[in-house]
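As agreed, record passed on underneath.
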Amino acid sequence: MQSVSTEKPLATPAPASEAAPMRPKHKGSAQLFKNPVLESLSHTHIALPVSIFAATGVLSMYYGLTHGFMSGVSALGLFVLGLLAFTLIEYVVHRYVYHIPATTAGRAKFQYTMHGVHHEYPKDKTRLAMPPIITVFVASLLFFIFRLAFQSYAFGLLSGFTFGYAMYLFVHYAIHAYSPPKNFLKVWWTHHSQHHYRQDEVAFGVSSTLWDHIIGTMPNKK
């Protein structure tokens, strides 16, 4: 869900058994590519991927309703189910893919490129989402997977899922780009800050703390 690259990063941390804890840097940005074109493509404004996933959700719901694949009530149910599914996928990917134990050099490179760079530069606003080219590919892939797996239910489920993705991207950006608000929304900032600055082995939910509560990975209040 962060910027993903397939080229070897210029600098990657050593395996976990050898590396010191990563200290976040609040200024600057990591260079992932030697090629300046690829390097520029690894950055994106958050509005682009958020708009792409939000538009996918709206169009999917509109198409499903206007072409008789679902009614208003069933559309709402499928939307909620798709949204809930996204929160689970968000948790699973963050915990088991982005935080894969860096026990070998290869794993360390993979983990750093996928997510470690974000932990090292948490305030880098241009690497809080995938580049537009990859975003379009992912949105298209999700459509074909959902259509193949869920047939006529796909449009409602995909609408909720991609809306959840857009919400995740927006919330994640807001947490890193702005100061926490003085209202109930502050819980998102506090939860994610615990993950970044105190206990990176817990608090894997970003747009929702639901699965941290259910699975037992809420941060220690102390």
